[in-house]
Amino acid sequence: MREDDFRGHASLHYVFDSVFPFLQVFAHKFYQTEEDKDFSREKAIFDRLTISAVDFCCQMAGIIVEPKILTQMVACLSTLVRKSSHDPSIMESVVENIGKGTKLQDTVAQMKSGNKEYYEQEIILNSKLKTMAVNLSLLWGGHNTVKAQLKYSSDREYTSVGGDEALPLDEEFQKSRPVITSVSSSQHVSKPSSQEANSRRDQERLTVRVLQILRAFIHNEERKLPDEWEVRMSEFRVKRGLKTIADIQSTLNSFDLMKHALPHLASSNSQIAKEVLSLLGIMLFNANEKVQESMLKYFLHTKEEVFFYAVRNRMQMSTANIKEKRLLISQQRARLQDAKSQADNLRTTMTLGVKALQVKCGFKIS
Predict the structure, then answer these.
(1) Does residue 284 sit in helix, strand or coil?
(2) Which helix (H) or strand (E) holds 40?
(3) 7 alpha-carbon distance from chain centroid
(4) Cβ distance 158 to 145 under 8 Å?
(5) 184 in helix, strand or coil?
(6) Does pTM top 0.70 for this prediction?
(7) Which has the closest alpha carbon to 46: 81, 6, 10?
(8) Which whole number is the average pLDDT over 254-276?
(9) How far is CA 45 from the centre of its chain?
(10) SS3 169
(11) Residues 6 or more apart from 1 whose CB is under 8 A from it?
């Protein structure tokens, strides 16, 4: 906002918030004219003040949409006109402008509409940039299908983009899976060396990527299964796919994957904790008994309760997020209801004011 615009808004708020209430109180409680004394000069000044206020409000009535300001304006003018020597009909122009001017509406909604008009070019540019980002993502990562990612004939979706268990969509990620082929490689999940990661951030990024690669070994085979494979267990293709998944799970389990992965639940990085839980979930896919026994053995023979603390913390975070969203929604509804009630009250007030003027002055206001 420019400095001149800021000063103009400040001046208007000063008039509405300070000048109008002052004039209303002054005219109602302090301005008195005794008939036996000569107050012609004071009356002339007060009449000019009343005319100036009416003219100002006549111009502003058609553009003000805040019910509170309109109510204050009408109340002040009514007091001034009643104490002046002018006919009450001078308020007719103000009432007409309020009825024919800008439609009363929610101030917040109008503000959003004004922002959209002011930032129209930026919104269009952002939309184009978003479209370009999506296109570049598709160009780099390819389509989110098993056929595009794994070069396997299947129309199934490869991963849930944006979900908690999403995997990267790019050929580089798929080519990195064969790198982890030994126990020493799997131990990188536990303790990445300083030579591979020069900072804490690099270590965390490496840990997340290794966890994703380990999960992709099983996830890719699961995606190769046909649709509705749960009700087609007797088919040879499904049996072969489930056996392949079980072999991969058993192989990873033989490298003490549970022992190396579970301690990472204590990480302060929520992305790492989320990847560990996703890896545990895919390791238990189709109820692998060897993995279940390994996890049970870990829980029974260690004093650490990191897993249960991590699950509890994630449940608490989810609960807090749900409560916050509900609170924001209730506050928004309350503001909308308050704005609506203010607008209804103002319409009622203006209707009563018009009827009072019609009865007192005998003129009709359209």
Answers:
(1) coil
(2) helix 40-60
(3) 32
(4) yes
(5) helix
(6) no
(7) 81
(8) 85
(9) 54
(10) coil
(11) 9
Query: Taking the domains of the chain in order of start, what are their residue ranges?
Result: 3-103+334-361, 144-304
Continuous H helices in 119-199: 120-141, 146-150, 171-175, 183-186
Please count the other Cβ atoms lying within 10 Å of the Cβ belonging to residue 137: 14
pLDDT of 1 higher than 50: no
- Report DSSP state, residue 103: P
Asked which of 48-52, 143-147, 355-359 is least confident by mean pLDDT, the reply is 355-359
363: which residues sit within 8 A by CB, 6+ positions away? 89, 92, 357
Nearest Cα residue to 213 out of 246, 243, 254, 185: 185
Cα–Cα dist 44/48, whole Å: 6
Query: Tokens 């870990």 appear where?
Result: 298
Report how far residue 58's alpha carbon sits from residue 270's, in angstroms, rounded to the nearest whole number. Answer: 59
Q: Could you tell me the end-to-end alpha-carbon distance of the chain, in angstroms, rounded to an integer?
A: 38
Which residues are CB-contacts of 295 (< 8 A; sequence separation ≥ 6)?
A: 258, 280, 284
The strand ranges marked E within the chain are none
Amino acid (1-letter code) at residue 300: L
In three-state secondary structure terms, 112 is: helix
Q: Give backbone dihedrals phi and psi of 157, rounded to 5 degrees, phi first.
A: -70, 135
Tokens of 246: 């079980």
